[in-house]
Design brief:
Elements lengths: L10 H25 L2 H25 L11 H18 L6 H8 L2 H6 L4 H31 L10 H25 L1 H4 L3 H14 L11 H10 L7 H7 L5 H35 L3
Helix pairs in contact: 1-6, 2-3, 2-6, 3-6, 3-11, 4-7, 6-7, 7-11, 7-12, 11-12
C-alpha cells in the first residue's frame, strides 16, 4: 500500500515568503514612481556629465606632474570621477525629505497604521529608486567618460562582485543616514538644519569633491572607521579602481556591512522611540 503524505509549509516560512513578496512589490512601486520623472532623469544625467568633465580636468591637473596622486594614477582618477558622477544619484546623498514632510503634516500616522514597518517600506521604495537610477543616471556618465579620457578597467575577477555589493551597501548606508536625519522632525519639527549638516558632511567626507586618500593618513583612516560618510562613495569607488589589494578591498566592504547593520538597527530603534513620543503627545 502506498501512503501519500502532504507537506505544509511552516508559518514562519510563509511569513518570510510573504515579507519578501511585499518588499518586492513596494520596491517595484518605487521604481515606477521615479520612472515617471523622465525629463528630470535626462536633465540630471546631463548635469552630472558636465560636472564630470570639470572634476576630471581638476584631478588630472593634480596628478600631471607626479604622475600619481595619493596612489591613484591618471586612469584611476578618471574612472573615480566618472563612476562617482554616476553613483551620485544612485546613492542619493541629499534631497530626500519624504518622511520629514509626513511627520510635519501628520500624515505619518497613516504609515503607522500599515502592516509594514515604516523602515521596511521606505527602504523598499528607496531600493526601487536606486534601481531606476542605475539605468538612467549611472550608465550615461560611464559611457561618456571613456569617449574622451583613458579610463582604468578592473583587472581582478573579484572586483565586479565586490563593487556591486559595495554599491548596494552604500545605498543602504545612505538610506539609514537620511532616515535618521528625517526622524529628527519628530522632535524638531523642522529638519532644514540637520539636512544642511547632512548635505555638507556627506559631500565633503563622502569622497564626492575629492578622494579622501588626498588627506593625511592620520585623518582619513579614523574618518573611515568612525563615521559612515566614506562608505557612501569613497568605498565603492576605491573598490572599483582597485586602489588596494584584494584583502583591503574585502575589508572596505566589511566596514560597509558593519555600518549598514548599525544604521538600519538605529533606524528601527529611533522609529520605535518616536512612536512612543507620538502616543505620549496623544497622536
Amino acid at each position: 500500500m502506498a501512503w501519500l503524505t502532504a507537506t505544509v509549509a511552516s508559518p514562519q516560512r510563509i511569513n518570510v515568503i510573504l515579507w519578501f513578496r511585499i518588499f518586492r512589490v513596494i520596491a517595484a512601486s518605487g521604481f515606477r514612481r521615479y520612472a515617471t520623472y523622465r525629463q528630470a532623469a535626462v536633465a540630471g544625467a546631463l548635469v552630472n556629465t558636465v560636472f564630470g568633465f570639470l572634476r576630471c580636468y581638476v584631478l588630472l591637473a593634480v596628478a600631471q606632474n607626479a604622475g600619481v596622486a595619493a596612489g591613484y594614477d591618471p586612469a584611476q582618477l578618471v574612472t573615480f570621477v566618472w563612476a562617482g558622477q554616476g553613483l551620485l544619484a544612485v546613492v542619493l546623498l541629499w534631497g530626500w525629505t519624504d518622511l520629514a514632510d509626513r511627520i510635519r503634516t501628520g500624515d505619518v500616522a497613516t504609515d503607522l497604521l500599515r502592516p509594514v514597518h515604516p523602515v521596511t517600506s521606505y527602504l523598499a521604495v528607496d531600493l526601487g529608486r536606486a534601481g531606476y537610477a542605475l539605468l538612467t543616471r549611472l550608465v550615461p556618465p560611464v559611457l561618456v567618460g571613456p569617449l574622451f579620457f583613458d579610463v582604468y578597467l578592473p583587472t581582478r575577477w573579484a572586483t565586479g562582485p565586490l563593487f556591486a555589493l559595495s554599491v548596494l551597501l552604500a545605498v543602504l548606508i545612505s538610506f539609514g543616514c537620511r532616515f535618521l536625519v528625517n526622524t529628527t522632525a519628530y522632535w524638531l519639527h523642522d529638519v532644514r538644519g540637520p539636512m544642511i549638516l547632512w548635505t555638507l558632511g556627506s559631500g565633503v567626507l563622502g569622497g564626492l569633491y575629492f578622494p579622501l586618500r588626498f588627506l593625511p593618513e592620520w585623518c582619513y583612516v579614523p574618518l573611515w572607521l568612525a563615521t559612515p560618510f566614506p562608505s557612501l562613495l569613497q568605498a565603492p569607488l576605491d573598490v572599483l579602481v582597485e586602489r588596494d589589494p584584494v584583502g583591503i578591498q574585502v575589508g572596505i566592504v566589511g566596514v560597509q556591512i558593519a555600518w549598514a547593520v548599525l544604521l538600519l538597527g538605529a533606524c528601527r530603534t529611533v522609529q520605535r522611540r518616536a512612536e512612543r513620543r507620538l502616543v505620549i503627545q496623544g497622536g
